[in-house]
Amino acid sequence: MLVSALILGLLGSLHCVGMCGPIAFMLPVDRTNSFKKISQITTYHFGRLLAYSIIGLAFGLIGKSLYIFGMQQQLSIAIGIIMIILVLIPYRTLGKYNLSRPLNKLISKVKSSLGKALKKKTTDTFLTIGFLNGFLPCGLVYMAVFGAVATGNLLEGSLYMVLFGLGTIPLMTTATYLGKFLNNTIKQRIQKAIPVFIIIIGVLFILRGLGLGIPYLSPAPIVEMATSTLECH
Prior knowledge:
The chain is mainly α. The chain has one domain. Helix content is 77%, strand content 0%. Helix 3 (34-68) runs parallel beside helix 7. The longest helix is centred in the first third of the chain and has 35 residues, at 34-68. The protein is globular.
């Protein structure tokens, strides 16, 4: 399941460039010094990964809480279904509900702080920009969050989000250069592949929750295994 986070990040990179690309292009990097420029961009990405790790930790805690109450299987199935539904529902229909409305005040503060950070050129600027960037609303981040919850574990939830972030780094870093080589046909194919892969991840989560006893893909519930062991003794 953790591998799915990395692949989601890699496939979703094009979407990330469209959403966060303007921020990356506005980074106050030192273009006269290649080494300094690379270190500044690296610091920016580290800030993003730090934000994602915190988000993963928080939602991994939620998943663990549900796991303690014996709802891990139901949670995995529910998340798989939600991921599939969100992909199948037309974007315009989904946009009417404005799912991020409850967080609008917080998002406004993040955007305001981000705008101020972009005007600075201090050492910690790039870490701050990356960190704030990680908390901006994004459809793909929401999908990764669902995956973090489904892990049912704090550390795995955090790792899931970090792997997702790592997957977005290559294209986010080289967007300026790759933009000249990626024609519209390739971009459209990548965009079409993203929802297909999300549906596949959703199906995997559903299979995992069903506990069919298939190694790695749909392992039997731990509770049942523990019960059967006690009966044998």
